[in-house]
Amino acid sequence: MSKILIIGAGGVGNVVVKKCAQHPDVFTDIHLASRTKSKCDQIAEEVKGLYGVKVSTYAVDADNVPELVQLINAVKPALVLNVALPYQDLTIMDACLEAGVNYMDTANYEPKDTAHFEYSWQWAYQDRFKEKGLMAVLGCGFDPGVTNIFCAYAQKHLYDSIETIDILDCNAGDHGHPFATNFNPEINIREVTQVVRHWKNGQWVETPAILDDKCIHFPFDYPEAGVKESYLLYHEEMESLVKHIKGLKQIRFWMTFSQNYITHLKVLENVGMTRIDEVEYNGVKIIPLQFLKALLPDPGTLGTNYTGKAVIGCIFDGEKDGKRFKKYIYNVCDHAECYREVQAQAVSYTTGVPAMIGAMMMLKGIWTGAGVYNVEQLDPDVFMDELNKCGLPWQVVDFNGELPV
């Protein structure tokens, strides 16, 4: 049916390519590019052995717009799926505009020199994509992505108005390492060391970062994973959901962290290893966080011995036909099962599968339009059906538990 160009050959890129190869009726021609072509070649070799599907591979510098344009023009894809670093979102969007190709990503832009991420930089492309008749879909991983789709589904089918949303992300898995991050260490550590924000009564409320003793956290009993300490965290999907969910008075994001993780991260921060500014060492300028990334395990290699579950979902409190009630929509994903299927751990799987489904929605013409979209602005129904078919089944249950006020 369509040709796709995937940019990024890390843990998520591996999942995306293999899931695309499982749907040859949709993805008839798969192309994979990364700064390091050998990573692409390894994935292509695995795909050929598993599915008998050819993947064409390329080296590209995703920070270089002319180089990206040259590749896109050579491949001529119907869609560019960006699973590279968030720093590279804007250059890839610029290249898609110049080459006249639709765009999708899984995480919003953040500048390299500032640990701050928001959608404003990408929303600013609205008119340019609209004028070119092109579609850009932002944040189609799990969170953001599936969590936004859960919200769209709840708004369409379960509620007349939603008053509060709590997004809860639990990784109850064990990778066997003393300390490791489940996705790019540089991005992960920048994310969790920021000041926390949540939305309440029309404004953003700031609270201490998770490494601060005054941070907000509580124990939550997750389906199949049990009780885990969950920390209030800022996450990008809240920024778009406050614009698109009717009647919303509060939205919060919670993520689980073990005490071991918190302790390691506190030590690293205290000794300066989470800094993102340059320091001079032996006459060479280095960025401590990038050096730390080189020392930590590659998230793409964690799946081998990973056990346990990841549980991600949304708790809604709202009204339908004058009645007030709470619902919980969630997915449970098993690390070991993900590895058996696509040689990846569940954090990569839960990002890569929705990215593939989102690409399917665009290539099939189910999601159409000109401009820049967050996924909750698009129809959730077929996407939700595909989650059940493609390895991320979801549940909707009544919620009678307690959340912090």
TrEMBL record:
Top-level taxon in the UniProt lineage: Bacteria
Q: List, for all copies, the residue spans of the domain called Saccharopine dehydrogenase NADP binding.
A: 4-137
Domain Saccharopine dehydrogenase-like C-terminal positions: 141-391
| InterPro entries tied to this protein | NAD(P)-bd_dom_sf, Sacchrp_dh-like_C, Sacchrp_dh_NADP-bd
Alphabetical list of PANTHER family matching this protein: CARBOXYNORSPERMIDINE SYNTHASE (PTHR43796:SF2)
What is this protein called in UniProt?
Carboxynorspermidine dehydrogenase
